[in-house]
Amino acid sequence: MCELTIVGAGAGFVVIDKPPGVRSVPGRGPDAAESIEQRVRARWTDYDGPVIVHRLDIETSGLMVVARDRVAHQRLSRQFMHRKVGKTYDAVLQGVVTPDEGAVDLPLRVDWENRPRQMVCHEKGRKSRTLYRVVARSDAWTRVAFRPMTGRTHQLRVHSVTPVSAGGLGAPILGDTLYGDASSASRLLLHADHLSFWAPYGPGWCKFDSPSSFGAGWA
Fold first, then answer.
1. Overall average pLDDT of the 86-105 stretch
2. Res 214: pLDDT
3. Which CATH number is associated with domain 6-86+196-212?
4. Do domains 6-86+196-212 and 88-184 have the same CATH topology?
5. What percent of the chain has pLDDT over 90?
6. DSSP state of 180
7. Is pLDDT of 218 > 80?
8. pTM
9. CA–CA distance, 209 with 193 (Å, rounded to integer)
10. For the chain, how are helix, strand and coil distributed in percent, rounded to 5?
């Protein structure tokens, strides 16, 4: 069972650093019960309201904020809903991304025949926008700082792997088991390294950082 790594806390909230391979919320069946939600409830047994404000993919690591009471959950959730939070991700992509910075605007929806995969769909997809900035390059990989402006499922993974001719970056994230080459890295090289939001009980803007553990080889 995973241990919670607490990065910071305040009135009504706790910020944790989620390890890769752990669900944000329980899945179906007893074998999929372990999750950040389960660990939070086990640690703070005095609260039975909603705790999960937002989610990270099971393969993605990094910063998550969880609520400690109902009012905090409502206020934090509203910030995510209205895109009032700051979020950035550190990622290493398989291939060379040529522009130094830019934006990907590709609408996404569930690929119903291949769930949980998502797909680009200009007819029925939901608006999805990702800003990116190249941090480092080699002749085989590109390290990128992502700033998602929307929070769709697998947004960064799909925007990365979609060909340049179709509006994407044309380079899957290393270690991606769904959209790329699972053997290209020991894990998905995607980490939520910055999170900022308004304190639910105020006052002030809260900022948290968590450097990725990818290593200097990708710098």
1. 97
2. 83
3. 3.30.2350.10
4. yes
5. 84
6. S
7. no
8. 0.94
9. 6
10. 20, 35, 45
Q: Is pLDDT at 3 greater than 70 in this prediction?
A: yes
Residue type, position 116, single letter: P
Give the pLDDT confidence of 70-88 residue by residue, as tens digits: 999 999 999 999 999 999 9
The two tokens of residue 98 are 């040529």
Catalytic-residue membership of 57:
yes
Query: How many other C-beta atoms can be found within 10 angstroms of the C-beta atom of residue 180?
Result: 21
- For 154, other C-beta atoms within 10 Å of its C-beta total 23
The domain segmentation of the chain, as residue ranges, is 6-86+196-212, 88-184
CA distance 46 to 82: 29
d(CA 85, CA 138): 32
Could you say which architecture CATH assigns to the domain 88-184? 2-Layer Sandwich (3.30)
Q: What mean pLDDT is predicted for residues 92-100?
A: 96
Which of 57, 90, 176, 193 is catalytic? The answer is 57
Q: In this structure, are residues 198 and 216 in contact, taking their beta carbons and an 8 Å threshold?
A: no
The neighbour count for residue 216, using CB atoms within 10 Å, is: 5
What is the residue whose two structure tokens read 């393969």?
Answer: 59
Mean pLDDT to the nearest integer, 201-214:
92
Q: What is the dihedral of CA 43, 44, 48, 54, to 10 degrees?
A: -70
- β-pairing, 190-198 vs 61-67, is parallel
Query: Are the CB atoms for 146 and 155 separated by under 8 Å?
Result: no
Whole-angstrom Cα Rg for the chain: 17
- Taking Cα atoms as reference points, which of 50, 57, 59, 54 lies closest to residue 12? 50
